[in-house]
Design a protein that fits this description.
This protein is mainly β and 769 residues long. The chain is 6% helix and 54% strand. The longest helix has 18 residues.
């Protein structure tokens, strides 16, 4: 779908809806009374409600807190959300241990990311930067009845700041820190009329440099540049039109994509790393590659939202277009300064169009409801190129695919190996949904929700050998797959207000995550079609407002059984990531959160998660490097596999604790001093489904803090901050080193370092006009 056609559709949809209802809306009743100043307002049920009244476990983060913790990316939210973690490499997210992100182009993650009511769907791996944010709500557990097909684990709901009609304003924020870490944000708010306003904001970030490449003396540098414009017009008290456009560009240059922390003594891999000066070890952040490392992504979108109050109910229309493009200028993934696999690039373009209509009742009737229709259409085109002399170092007999002759040896040493795969994928989805709260009495409510939908997914991959190659790393056979599925997901529960400030709830949800095609490696014994993921989640919880409603506390217990969990794992025997279904897994645990201002000048936001998450029996994965029969590695057919049943989920710690606090006190009539502290503790994490004591993270606590001064009206501020104050190294993810076996290394693992992997000290400046 062309951009011009999509924009015309977006504008026309919004305009037609606006013309259809203004006459009806003129006589709509006044809105419900405003919430108390101490109440925390969220939109977890697609309507504004007190956090205390929402029967869902929710972590709420204000935009102010994100700025204070130097959080600019969605992946950074793992630092202050106990339930949110990285589910694997390259930005995958999980909630309560459930989550995955596949290299299959038609697949989506299990954690939905929603920005101003628009689901990012398959563009969520590179969401817009977090700047000029009103709040972020992390909704735990399946949210499919309201948020759709890609929210089987939960939702990250991002709400940007709306324009202000009353006054012109401008603000700026800047961080300058060690390791060449920079953040800049600016906002301009322009009133256009007494019922219209425009808000324009922009951001720049450069993450702390890490992963040094000794071959060309460069560090990995990741930059993000973003802009957003939001126009809000309320032509009558009962009509609102909201138009939003955003653009982001992310670049990653220099350094190495990952570093080796375990290798086998005497192997070619170890020798080459040592010759370059790389010291392999658990905290290694140095590599040595000669093929370059440079990628870029561009993400942009437009949305038009129309709201009209009709007889007390609100009709909403949201039309949206999203585009994602990635460019790979060089990605050397063989870890060494020789061409084993110098080219591993996957440029991609995705274009999404979505349309949602919903009707939301006024609050306080016998039945409070949200009902609607949703349509989604996506087109993806991508290319995956792998190229290198991957067989050059293997022993001649039984390893060279061309035989054992001198000619075969020459071919294995000098001729490239690899393929170019071109993939097209189309996804179409439509659904009808409804959520209702039946107010049996003022204190007792019944919760009902349902979604009926249809998914249509197809993918086609064509492949050819790279020029000069006589074989591919992966098969060059064509891959054609299509799957259709109709589904019904639902939610039932009950809610009881013990008092106005204490609420109990219990829910059961049957969720849904749509099917996909294994369009990169779906050939031979590898499954072509990946079946829908079906969670069955139960939750009971208690929420209470404490300290005269200045602090909201919640505790929830949950049990979730997931059938056909969509999972991906690395198979070192073919140097490829394999996507498929784990027959079953379970997660069960308890979450606790505290949020508010319990005393004058004191702000707290903290949480704890205990999560017991394990794979069910029958999930056969490739054995880990060095895994023995005594450790569960068995032979099935011609492969060596491990039944991962009973193993902990990838990326799912048993314990996680996060905390943020600030205390402010006047030091003069116009100046306040403040001190902030933060902590994130995470217990041991497994990064492989198979038995692998090496592919783990040890338990660690990371501390941060900030001290500073600001004017009493918050117009100006100056502070000094530190992240990872005790310089505790903790990688983001660990995995089997690609091409290690082709360099005669039988047991090697690599890791990716993140912004918090080492200490950062800096200064922040804030100004508002």
């Amino acid at each position: 779908m062309k951009v011009s056609h999509t924009l015309a559709t977006l504008v026309a949809t919004t305009a037609l809806t606006a013309l259809a209802v203004p006459a009806v809306a003129q006589n709509a009743p006044a809105s419900a009374p405003a919430a108390d100043d101490n109440d925390i307002i969220v939109t977890a049920n697609k309507r504004e409600e007190r956090l205390q009244d929402v029967p869902i476990s929710v972590t709420v983060l204000s935009g102010d807190q994100l700025t204070k913790q130097n959080i600019t990316q969605v992946i950074d939210l793992t630092r202050n959300t106990p339930s949110l973690n990285s589910a694997g490499p390259f930005g995958a997210l999980s909630i309560r241990g459930v989550g995955s992100l596949s290299f299959a182009r038609s697949a989506e993650g299990s954690v939905g990311i929603v920005v101003d009511g628009v689901a990012l769907a398959n563009t969520s791996s590179n969401p817009p930067q977090l700047f000029d944010i009103a709040r972020v709500e992390v909704l735990e557990g399946p949210q499919g009845t309201l948020f759709g097909r890609n929210s089987s684990a939960g939702v990250v709901n991002i709400v940007t700041t709306a324009p202000n009609f009353t006054a012109f304003s401008a603000s700026g924020h800047a961080d300058i820190a060690s390791r060449n870490n920079y953040i800049g944000q600016a906002v301009i708010n322009v009133p256009i009329a007494d019922n219209a306003g425009l808000r324009v904001s922009g951001a720049f970030s450069q993450t702390p440099q890490n992963q040094y490449n000794r071959f060309d003396n460069s560090y990995l540098r990741v930059q993000g540049k973003s802009g957003r414009a939001r126009f809000l017009w309320e032509p009558t008290p009962d009509i609102a039109i909201n138009l939003i456009g955003d653009y982001s560009k992310f670049t990653s240059k220099g350094g190495v994509p990952w570093t080796v922390y375990k290798s086998t003594a005497g192997s070619l891999l170890s020798s080459r790393l040592a010759a370059c000066g790389v010291v392999v070890g658990p905290e290694n952040q140095q590599g040595c590659t000669d093929g370059g490392n440079s990628t870029a992504t561009e993400v942009y979108g437009f949305s038009g939202q129309f709201d009209a109050t009709i007889g007390g109910a609100t009709l909403t229309s949201i039309s949206a277009y999203r585009s994602y493009q990635s460019f790979a200028y060089g990605t050397d993934v063989d870890s060494v300064p020789v061409n084993r696999l110098n080219v591993n690039s996957s440029p991609t373009r995705v274009r999404n169009f979505s349309q949602e209509f919903r009707l939301t009742s006024a609050k306080g009737g016998f039945i409070d409801y949200v009902a609607g229709l949703y349509y989604f259409d996506s087109k993806l085109d991508g290319t995956n190129t792998q190229n290198g002399l991957i067989f050059a170092d293997l022993p001649l007999v039984g390893a060279c695919p061309y035989g054992s002759s001198a000619t075969a040896n020459f071919l294995c040493t000098t001729r490239p190996v690899g393929q170019i795969q071109t993939t097209s994928s189309i996804t179409t989805s439509y659904a009808a949904f409804a959520n209702a709260t039946v107010n049996i009495t003022p204190a007792i409510r019944i919760l009902l929700g349902a979604r009926y939908g249809h998914e249509d997914v197809s993918a086609h991959t064509r492949a050819m050998l790279v020029p000069g190659a006589l074989t591919g790393i992966l098969s060059v056979a064509p891959i054609n797959g299509a799957i259709k599925d109709s589904y019904f997901s639902y939610r039932v529960g009950a809610q009881f207000d013990v008092t106005r400030d204490v609420m109990l709830y219990g829910t059961y949800t049957k969720g849904y995550k749509g099917p996909s095609v294994n369009d990169q490696t779906g050939s031979g014994a590898i499954p072509l079609l990946v079946q829908p993921e079906i969670p069955h989640a139960s939750e009971i919880g208690l929420k209470a407002d404490l300290f005269d409603r200045h602090l909201t506390a919640s505790i929830a217990g949950y049990y979730n059984r997931i059938d056909n969990f969509q999972a991906q794992f690395f198979d070192p025997s073919v140097s490829a990531f394999i996507f498929g279904n784990a027959p079953k897994l379970t997660t069960k645990g308890v979450s606790v959160s505290l949020l508010g201002r319990p005393a004058k000048g004191l702000t707290l936001n903290g949480g704890l998660l205990y999560n017991d998450a394990k794979y069910g029996n029958g999930y056969l994965v490739a054995c880990s490097q060095g895994q023995t029969a005594a450790q569960g590695c068995t032979t099935v057919g011609t492969g060596r596999v491990d039944d991962a049943g009973g193993n902990r989920l990838v990326g799912a710690p048993r314990w996680k604790v996060t905390g943020f606090g600030e205390y402010a006190h006047a030091v003069s009539g116009a100046i306040d001093g403040f001190a902030q502290a933060e902590i994130v503790y995470t217990s041991k994490i497994n990064f492989e489904a198979a038995y692998s004591p090496l592919a783990t993270n040890a338990a660690a606590a990371i501390f941060g803090g900030r001290i500073g001064l600001r004017t009493h009206d918050n117009r100006y501020g100056l502070s000094v901050f530190g992240r990872n104050l005790f310089d505790t190294y903790r990688p983001v993810v660990r995995f089997a080193t690609p091409t290690a076996q082709q360099q005669l290394d039988t047991q090697s693992f690599s890791q990716i370092s993140g912004p918090e992997s080492r200490r950062v000290i800096g200064v922040s400046l804030d100004a508002k006009f």
